[in-house]
Amino acid sequence: MLKRSLMAGAAVLAMTVSAQAADKTLTISVYSFSQDAFKELVYTPFEAICGCDIVVETGNSIERMAKIEANKDAPVIDMAVLSAHDALGAARKGLLQPIDTTALTNYDKLYDIAKDPLGDNMGVGYTFYATSIAYRSDKVTITSWADLLSPELAGNVALPDVTTNQGPPALYMLGKAMGDTDPSLTKPIEAVGEKVDDIVTFYVRSSQLAQLMQQEEIWAAPIGRFAWGSFRDNGLPMAWAEPVEGQTGGMNVMVMTANNGNEELALQFMDFWLSTEVQTKLAEALIDSPANSEVEVSDEIAANLTYGADTVATLDLLSPATILDMREGWLEQWNSKVVQ
Amino acid sequence: MFENRAIGVALVLPAALFAAALFFLPVGILLSEAFRTETGWSAWAYVEFFQSPRNQTVFFRTLKLAGLVALVSAVIGYAAAFAIVNLPPTSRGRMFGLVMLPLMISPVARTYAWLVILGRTGFVNQFLVNIGLTDTPFRILFTETAVFIGLLQLFLPLMIISLVSAMENMPRDAVSAARILGANWFQVFWRVILPLTREGLVIGGTLVFTGSMTAYITPAILGGSKVLMLETLLYQRVTVANDFVAASVIAMILIVMAFSANILLKRIATARKTR
Q1: Which domain holds residue B202?
Q2: How many domains does chain B have?
């Protein structure tokens, strides 16, 4: 009896607490990785500051975008993080509103490439990554993106599939090495198609690639810097290429959904996430490379990240608009020239 | 069996409603997607799908690999099942357990093991190099051969189990009788064992064929995007291109192929019976 009344009391208490806290709720839509760390480093500290509840929805870009689009007349999500090109796609569909960057006290600390990657302040970059070639330094030396198709690497190289985030930027850099920077990527795709038998596989997940490198199935592959940790420590002589054409990469942005009615709280949250303190913590936990230029980390941490003004200056990124506009065409060419 | 039909209907109703609401309806909606156009209904999506040379390649590759896996597993399966039913009961149970073992291991772990075994520094290649058959390791991973090996291992147990239970129902003396009457082993198989176990072959064949056709993990890991099959293509269309029309076209093709395989195998089985 006592137990039952205690439980009932606890239930009533829990209901009142959640009713109070639910006065202010911020619903965010994020990638599903590292959520435990995000909760500890970002969400919980912010909840303490704002006295609000954060509701987190996770999933891959496509799922989350589909959900935002389905609820566009009565938005559930207040702010979301997406890849830059997916964000631009959402903006073009009218699902987003411009971000009032004057309300972001940390905005001026961002690297220039992160300030307005989509145009019209539709998104603010909060992290980016370099993409270059991870390779076996005892087998080959890589100084150019063109080395990917060299005779030394024939039968020993994997490329990202065109459908991955790494695929098009890597092809773009291959084209650049061949003297062709046309966004149609026709020339590099043709070049890959001619050498298709020399390429072990077109990978979809970097975790799968790490195993292929470990098993000595491959000696080189273009990867995102965020995956570098699982290659560097595999017990084999590994190096990160710094090709003469530069490195490429990608960026993730924060966006504000249209007409969500919760703009003030969402802006406060974005500002918190972009602050030097939070960005430093996320960098030290090796979760996201900082877009805030005031973040300082040790050399050891920096070696795992895309870090510092010098690195940022060498990044040659495909613009979100290019990716969005050309994607279907790339896939079509890829299917006829490479997969056949 | 029941005093009146109403009781029978009442008993089946919950299961039928469950299946209708949670299976047939959603599947119907999904599949109708491919026939819906802005102006009405049409089968144009199917025509368009088969016009692409890439899709044709993927379709025939899926058909070929699934057919080959079913055929080879039937050949190996008959030999294994025949050996198993002729064992003494205790070893039979043990052997049966061994056959079932692969079914109890997670398909992901099992497929990753193949990555290690079939790799250039893997067991198979080291063996081939050591016995001097080749100097340079063969490239097996990310080829149709790798997908075939993976699928065969995955589905062979289903074929063996179906054939073992079919053979257990065979009159015990049928084989000896045929031998005494002068039949050679080929005739024994063709005119005695095969006709008496055709039900098991139809079930096993359908399971292996449809299983191979619709497997995702094995072709995804061992074949990758260079050896696309219908199932991996379906996944790519949904996750990459958000193209649910092509996806439901592929789903429909897979369903039709599964039913056709079953009908065809049954036909073959009954054709032999009537002769």
Answers
A1: 54-274
A2: 1
Q: Which tokens go with B259?
A: 């039913």
Other CB atoms closer than 10 Å to residue A44's CB: what's the count?
11
Mean pLDDT of A267-288: 96
- DSSP per-residue string spanning B194-211: HHHHHHHHHHHHHHHHHH
* Residues of A with Cβ-Cβ distance to B226 under 8 angstroms: 196, 199, 201-202, 339
B226 with A60: Cβ contact below 8 A: no
Distance in angstroms (rounded) separating the CA atoms of residues A213 and A200 = 11
Question: What is the value of ipTM here, to two decimals?
Answer: 0.75
- Asked if residue B11 is part of any domain, the answer here is no
Alpha helices, H only, chain B = 5-19, 25-32, 44-51, 53-85, 89-104, 107-118, 123-130, 144-168, 174-180, 185-187, 194-214, 217-218, 230-239, 244-274
- Interface residues from chain B to A (CB-CB < 8 Å): 52-54, 57, 112, 115-116, 119-122, 139, 141-142, 220-221, 224-226, 228, 236, 239-242
* Tokens linked to A92: 């073009």
Domain CATH number, residue B254: 1.10.3720.10
Which tokens sit at B76?
A: 């190996």
Q: In which residue are the tokens 């690195």 written? A: A311
The CA distance from A315 to A79, in Å, is: 27
For B215, half-sphere exposure in the C-beta direction (CA atoms, 13 angstrom radius) is 28
In angstroms, the separation between the Cα of residue B237 and the nearest Cα of chain A is: 10
- The Cα B54–Cα A136 span in angstroms is 34
Measured CA to CA, the distance from residue B228 to residue B237 in angstroms comes to 12
Q: Which helix (H) or strand (E) holds A29?
A: strand A25-30
A87-127 pLDDT, tens digit each: 999 999 999 999 999 999 999 999 999 999 999 999 999 99
Contacts with B227 (C-beta within 8 Å, 6 or more apart), sequence order: B61, B142, B143, B144, B146, B147, B219
Contact list in B for residue A204 (CB cut-off 8 A) is: 220, 224-225
For residue B4, being part of any structural domain is answered with no
Tokens of B241: 């291109």
3-class secondary structure, A7? helix
Interface of A with B in 36-95 (CB under 8 A): 60, 62, 66
State the pTM of this model: 0.82
Cβ within 8 Å of residue A46, ≥6 positions away? A54, A269, A272, A273
For residue B47, is it within any domain?
no
What does the block give as tokens for B196?
């008496």
> Is B6 within the bounds of a domain?
no
A331 to chain B: nearest residue by CA? Answer: B241
| Block mean pLDDT (10 aa), chain B, length 275 | 79 90 86 77 87 91 96 96 91 90 86 89 88 86 94 94 93 89 91 91 94 93 90 86 85 91 85 56
Measured CA to CA in angstroms, residue A74 lies from A26, A123, B48, B184 at distances of 15, 21, 37, 77
Report DSSP state, residue A237: -
Alpha-carbon distance A244 to nearest alpha carbon in chain B (angstroms): 30
* Residue B127 CB neighbour total at 10 angstroms: 10
